[in-house]
Amino acid sequence: MEAGDEQLMLAYREGDAGAFEALYKRHKGALYRFVARSIRDRATAEELYQEIWMRVIEARGRYEVQAKFTIWLYTVAHNRLVDHWRKRGLALVSLDQEESGGIDPPAGADYEPHRILEAKQGLARFARALEALPPAQREAFLLHEEAGMSVAEIAHATGADEEAAKSRLRYALKKLKQAVGDD
Description:
The chain is mostly helical and 183 residues long. 68% of the residues lie in helices and 0% in strands.
């Protein structure tokens, strides 16, 4: 049976470096996507991502289980992002838009270029809509989608009350659905 995140962090607090490696492997992808979609500049996002993990390392001696590890981790990330935004006058942050440099599928019998184009256009509309969301709504959406957090967990991680977190998520979802034309 696999150890839970909280048990791994407690083991890391006690000096088990392998426990940190397991936590990092488990959460690196979602946390990176959360940061990268919150910050426009890729280099800045990568720097903030590393700083968040450094804060986790520095806080290991003070770590106590008070909530799910993911809530604690994303609270650390939220606080670091807030610090970053404050230094820049709470400037609107955005989704890192990169050109899709992926490999195109082979042209088989069911190959339909117009469908691929439609999908890419829909993804671009979604990216623009996500970028246009107010930072608090974008953050609520990303915490829900990338970290799998509930409204209560989002509220806890961001220091908002549950009603505010619920509203932010609801408005974000409504705006994103309108933008992609999904009624």
